[in-house]
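Running this now, will post back.
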Amino acid sequence: MTNSDGEPAVLSVGFILGDSDAENNAWGLAIRSVMKQVIKASEGVVSPLRVNVVYHVDGKLAPNEFEGVRTGRFSRRDSHLMVQAAVPPGEVSDRYEVLLNLLGEAIDEAESFARRKGIAENLDSIRALVESLTPN
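Update: finished.
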């Protein structure tokens, strides 16, 4: 995901569906909704670390091998970090709320990474962006 300047967006969202069943498709629709809001809200936001959050939805074809969030690839050249977020299995009453909570946890993880690597003390601009997102 890039911004209007062709630079990687300060925050982007992606997903991996573990199956093609109705449950995974419903998660895919909810994640796309979050993606649209993130794209709109991230315009003009700057941060010393760019973050890509990839939601992993459990399924038979690609089961989740972790819970919660974890850091993935980091590009020092672009100061771009991928954080993986495992969507919990089972019934939920509000998919969007689950996704926003995971997004917040992913930013916590990214901020911890940024501190450890001496990139930044905080990611307040990204955190504010996430806090501005509203439930559907």
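Residues 11-131 form one domain. More later if anyone needs it.
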